[in-house]
């Protein structure tokens, strides 16, 4: 659901968790004695440890499409084991004696039916949320998608397990329908949906509650609905909050006629929340016994240093109606806003306490973990390479206490000009200003010169078991979600394309363009020609597009690859600096079906030069002297890699050397 399905969006935010009727969603006992907040208290969450991997796609997967594609939703089963979902079209699970020790199982708990008839609501299915009273009978909300011919039609269905979560069954469709928009599927409408967002919780009134996202046709914003039921086993029993009561029913537009959509539109429970950064659906809700507050958390947008950024946001409430202004735990790139070779992206963020006494992990004491799906774009593999990661957090009564405990760092760098030299200086500190002494800070230069540098863009990986062929090539201003929002001009010189396995043979025909364009297929408005090399003997491929209008696609002829083999894909090229972020060098992997299933994408980027490494003094200060810097425009980055506990950080300055 993150990539590459059409119409899919991350629609998440942290402040939309408002419950009508003042119904606290917590029925257990507090785990610790609750401190009494003072009038000056400012409850805050701090990151208190490093990121750790819970599930590594590269080693733990059961097949190539096995990654965590929904928030982690754990529960304790009747046998005392902790289970959680690993949702995909083939839904699998984690299991272990504790949440801290869950392991990936390969058995499928629910297989997507892939029924293309939209009236059945039974196509691509992801296990989204669970609730169990006894650990034997487990009720679930399932996210269903119909993606076809320009439309993404999302809805909510029901499944149940009577064998403690080992397998789930659904009533005969469409009797399993929980909620949908009162509209039929139509081609070309884009994304429109009624889809599940949060976990299921039980209120003191005995009702079960969940949040859902209503996405209107051709409307950028969406709104959040509050749903409740007194019978989890009956999909038709759910009702939405209509503004004054739970009086909104959900109808099947294929079975009922003369529907008035207004009567089946649940109220937006978000508009009066202060500090809202963006509309979306909350993914995480817990009760903190330490703070005596409800805490919501998710990914949201916020204004950083002059830019709109994505980060982990949270909000707190005493009564589930009045919410504090959003706070941001830290920047975290939203998955779809970056791409292969760029910064890692994240999604499906949830706050969980492994020690929670709740069977459905609805509570937390002073400490907890943030779990998230991490898209490992830096590896250059696209959407399959996703891990489940987590990092520890703690709740504090004041921001000052939280800053003292937080393990994030911040680098600041500046420069001084001297005779024939530039001095870079700066500091490395914790968030509360305490210096980080004895740490290594790397100084990197990314010169924005006019001709670029010859560089070998390389990726090493493993061919999926079902792949037998591949093509190599590139994309400019097309098929790249991480390209710039506008179509920039580009100019690239390629000297060699190389795909090698253990035998060392380059399997790409015409890999040095000795036959010109004979072994390649090009499309798009841009220009691709083969000319004599500017690096000595041989030939090179010259790729050029004009900004604002031209895209380019280029593929080699197909070549044979070995299923399961380790390979290295290398492109020796020179990218003109203005072309950065306009596209990527690609390796497109083709299974027996003949259609591309997976790809490696290495974006056009400016390879950095390490100028040197310096060590911070007792004040966290550092200094580095660069002698006789060549003229040009430079981007200098001071980077701290972290130490296994303290988080990494960096800072960048740009300047001109005349």
Provide an overview of this structure:
The chain is mainly β and 658 residues long. It has 3 domains: 20-405, Tachylectin-2, Chain A; 409-448 and 608-657, Immunoglobulins (Immunoglobulin-like, Sandwich); 454-603, Jelly Rolls, CATH 2.60.120. The protein is 2% helix and 44% strand. It has 2 helices and 42 strands. The strands form 8 sheets. Strands 8, 9, 10, 11, 12, 13, 14, 15 and 16 form a 9-stranded mixed beta sheet that branches. The protein is globular.
Number of helices: 2
Derived structural class? mainly beta
CATH architecture of the largest domain: 5 Propeller
Bin the strand percentage.
Answer: 35-45%
- The global form is globular
List the helices and strands and how they pair.
Blueprint: E1 44-47, E2 52-55, H1 57-60, E3 75-76, E4 82-86, E5 90-96, E6 103-104, E7 110-111, E8 124-132, E9 138-148, E10 151-161, E11 177-179, E12 190-196, E13 201-202, E14 208-215, E15 222-229, E16 239-240, E17 284-288, E18 293-303, E19 308-317, E20 327-331, E21 345-352, E22 363-364, E23 367-375, E24 386-396, H2 399-405, E25 409-418, E26 421-430, E27 440-447, E28 454-462, E29 467-476, E30 490-500, E31 520-523, E32 527-532, E33 539-545, E34 552-556, E35 559-560, E36 566-575, E37 583-591, E38 598-603, E39 609-615, E40 621-627, E41 632-640, E42 649-657
Parallel strand pairs: 10-12, 17-22
Antiparallel strand pairs: 1-24, 2-24, 3-4, 4-5, 5-6, 5-7, 8-9, 9-10, 10-11, 12-14, 13-14, 14-15, 15-16, 17-18, 18-19, 19-20, 21-23, 23-24, 25-26, 26-40, 27-39, 27-41, 28-36, 29-34, 29-35, 29-37, 30-33, 30-36, 31-34, 32-33, 37-38, 41-42
